[in-house]
Design goal:
alpha/beta, 4-stranded mixed β-sheet, 3-stranded mixed β-sheet, 7% strand
Length: 449
C-alpha cells in the first residue's frame, strides 16, 4: 500500500536528539540548523528499515537535502542507498513510464544494436592494453557508457540520451577515470539513431541522409544492400571494390583494404568515413565480430569506427546469441532488460547527486559503505547503475594508491607508443599496397613492341 506524507529529516529518521549534533563536517559552513523543511516521502509496504522508498526534497533541492544529512545525520548517509531521491519532475516521469513500460514489444534488432554498440566500445577500450583478447570481459562491458545509455533506452525511452552521457562523464571525472568527450558524443549520436531520433540540426546533409537509411534498416524498412548502395554513392572508388565484398570469402579481405583506401582518398569527414568502413567491414562476415583487428588498425584516425562496427554487427540478422560473442551478449541482454520499479529500494551504493555532495570532504569507507573494496556502485539515474573506481582515503593504502597512479601513467605512455607504432605500420602497409597497385597498372598498360 502506497502512503505519501511530508516529513522533516528528524521525522524521517525518527530522531529525538538535538539536530545540532556534529557529524562529518558542515558542508555549507552553517553554524546552526535552521527550521527543518518538509520533504515529500513515499512509503511502499513499510519494511523494517522504516525509511521512505522515494523522497522528493523540499524545493527540489537535492543538494541541500544530501548536505543536511551528511552534516547532522552522518550515520544515515548515504541515504540514496535506501531511498530514491529525485526531484518532482523526475518522479512524475518515472511513475508515468512505469505504467506503460513493457507493454510495447521490444524489437530484437534494436536491442541487438545496443548490445553491439556496447561490445564495440569495450573492444575499443581494449586498444593499447597488454592483455588484448578476441573479446572484452563482461565487467568491462558493464562499465561502458554504451551499456548505461542502452539501459536507459530500454527503461526510459523518452529520457534524453545526453542526460545519461553527461552524468557518466561527470562521475568518471570525479573518480579520476579516463573518458573521451568525442567518443561520448559518437555514442550519444548512435543511441539516438537506434531510438529513431535523428537531429534536424545536422550540418552535413549527407550524414543525415545516411542516418535515416540506417534507422530504416534498424526498423526493417530498408535492406542492408540499400545502405551499401547509399554509402557507395559518396565514394566513386567503391563501385569497383564493394561488389568484391559479396564475392568468395578469400577475396573479401583484400577487397576491404581497397575499400578503405578508396574511402580515405575521397574522405567525406571523420563520422561518415567511420560509418562507411565499419559497415563494409561487417560485410566480410556479417554479425560475426571476426574482423575486429581490421578496425583496430583504423582507430588512430577513425576512433569511432569500432562503435559503428559493433552496431552493424549486432544488428545483423546473422548475429547469433549462442556464438562466442553471443555468450557475452546473452548476459548483457539479461541485465539490460532486467525490470525496474521505482517503488522498490535502490541496489546501488549511492546516487551521483549524493556522491557529489559527500566528495566535498575526504571520503571514508565508513561513510560510503561500498559493496566492493575498490569500486563503488553509483546510480546515474533510477535503474541505471555503474561501477566506478573507489576514491576512499585509507592511510594504509596511500602508498599502494601512489604506486597504482604511477602504473596508470606508465600504461598511458605505453598505449600512446603502441598507437604510434600501429599508425606507422598502417602507413607502411598502405604504401606497399599502393606500390603493388602501381606495378600491376604498369604491367597492364605495357604493350608489346
Amino acid at each position: 500500500m502506497t502512503e505519501s506524507k511530508f516529513l522533516s529529516l528528524r521525522q524521517i529518521f525518527e530522531e529525538d536528539q538535538r539536530l545540532g549534533k556534529k557529524g562529518v563536517g558542515d558542508l555549507f559552513s552553517s553554524a546552526k540548523v535552521q527550521e527543518q523543511a518538509s520533504h515529500l516521502c513515499v512509503f511502499e509496504d513499510r519494511d523494517a528499515l522504516g525509511l521512505p522508498n522515494i523522497v522528493i526534497p523540499a524545493d527540489n533541492d537535492l543538494d541541500s537535502f544530501f548536505a543536511d544529512i551528511a552534516t547532522y545525520f552522518p550515520e544515515r548517509a548515504p541515504i540514496s542507498a535506501y531511498s530514491h531521491v529525485v526531484d518532482a519532475a523526475s518522479h512524475q516521469a518515472l511513475v508515468a513510464r512505469s505504467k506503460v513500460r513493457n507493454k510495447a514489444p521490444r524489437d530484437k534488432r534494436e536491442l541487438s544494436a545496443l548490445i553491439g554498440l556496447t561490445l564495440g566500445e569495450a573492444l575499443s577500450n581494449l586498444r593499447g592494453t597488454s592483455n588484448q583478447t578476441a573479446l572484452p570481459n563482461y565487467s568491462l562491458c558493464k562499465r561502458t557508457l554504451s551499456y548505461c545509455v542502452a539501459r536507459a533506452a530500454f527503461l526510459h525511452p523518452t529520457l534524453a540520451t545526453s542526460e545519461i552521457v553527461s552524468r557518466w562523464l561527470r562521475i568518471r571525472h570525479s573518480t579520476g577515470m579516463d573518458s573521451s568527450s568525442a567518443t561520448a558524443q559518437s555514442i550519444n549520436q548512435a543511441v539516438e539513431l537506434i531510438k529513431g531520433n535523428i537531429s534536424t540540426e545536422e550540418e552535413q546533409p549527407e550524414l543525415r541522409d545516411v542516418f535515416e537509411t540506417i534507422s530504416g534498416h534498424l526498423r526493417k524498412r530498408v535492406e542492408r544492400e540499400y545502405i551499401a548502395a547509399h554509402l557507395t554513392s559518396f565514394y566513386p572508388g567503391l563501385r569497383k571494390t564493394v561488389p568484391l565484398l559479396y564475392d568468395a570469402y578469400d577475396n573479401r579481405i583484400s577487397a576491404f583494404s581497397a575499400t578503405v583506401k578508396a574511402i580515405r582518398d575521397e574522405s567525406k569527414g571523420e563520422t561518415l568515413d567511420a560509418i562507411s568502413v565499419a559497415f563494409f567491414c561487417n560485410l566480410i562476415l556479417p554479425g560475426s565480430f571476426s574482423h575486429v583487428g581490421l578496425i583496430e588498425r583504423l582507430l588512430p584516425t577513425l576512433p569511432s569506427s569500432m562503435l559503428w562496427y559493433g552496431l552493424f554487427a549486432g544488428s545483423s540478422d546473422e548475429f547469433s546469441w549462442t556464438s562466442s560473442v553471443g555468450s557475452i551478449a546473452q548476459k548483457l541482454f539479461r541485465d539490460l532488460t532486467t525490470p525496474f520499479d521505482i517503488t522498490q529500494r535502490p541496489t546501488c551504493d549511492l546516487s551521483i547527486e549524493e556522491y557529489d555532495v559527500l566528495a566535498r570532504l575526504p571520503l571514508r569507507s565508513e561513510v560510503l559503505k561500498p559493496t566492493q573494496a575498490k569500486a563503488v556502485l553509483v546510480s546515474l539515474y533510477p535503474g541505471i547503475e555503474v561501477y566506478v573506481r573507489s576514491t576512499v582515503e585509507d592511510d594504509e593504502g596511500s602508498e599502494r594508491n601512489a604506486l597504482a597512479s604511477m602504473m596508470i601513467e606508465r600504461n598511458v605512455r605505453l598505449s600512446r607508443v603502441r598507437d604510434l607504432l600501429r599508425h606507422a605500420d598502417q602507413i607502411l602497409e598502405e604504401e606497399r599496397y599502393s606500390e603493388q597497385s602501381s606495378r600491376s597498372s604498369l604491367k597492364t598498360n605495357r604493350r608489346p613492341r
